[in-house]
Amino acid sequence: MRIKHFIICGVMLLTLTACSTKQSAINQLEDFSYELRDHSRNYTIDEWEHAGKKFVKIREKINKHEFDYTAQEKAKIGRLEANCVKYMAKGAKDGVFDTLNNIGSEIKGIIQGIMDALSPDTFEGEEI
């Protein structure tokens, strides 16, 4: 009788561990989506590289439990992944545009400086 109880306890423990692990992968994906939502706009190139690797690792964990997820869990995973991709695309786009705007402003300043230097008013009173 004790052996039966031991086996039942072992099976229950394995089941709970598997559920915990598959749920932890979903939790990691959810946390990552929040992280991207809140911080990705200001990511550096290194942070984007890290984010990409982190996303791949989380996906690998989810894939390990692919057949263990319910339809509801799979739907949640799909929504979270879509959010991550959306935040990654938006953050990368915004970061690139901000960089281009900064560079564009700098170039505008250089051009304005050149134009000011070449304006006829600059040469008045100077011998050429």
Order of helices and strands: HHHH
Structural class assignment: mainly alpha
Mean pLDDT: 75
Gyration radius (Cα, Å) is 28 Å
Number of helices: 4
What kind of oligomer do you see? single chain
Shape annotation: rod-shaped
Poorly predicted sequence stretches spanning 5 or more consecutive residues: 13-19
Q: What is the rounded distance between the termini?
A: 110 Å
Strand content: under 5%
Taking the sheet with the most strands, its summary is: none
Helix proportion: over 70%
Strands, total number? 0
Detailed description of the structure:
The protein is mostly helical and 128 residues long. It has four helices and no strands. The chain is rod-shaped.
Features:
128 residues, 4 helices, 0% strand
Q: What is this entry, summarized?
A:
With 128 residues, this protein is an all-alpha fold. It has helices at residues 2-39, 45-64, 71-118, 120-123.
Helix and strand arrangement:
Layout: H1 2-39, H2 45-64, H3 71-118, H4 120-123
Helix pairs in contact: 1-2, 1-3
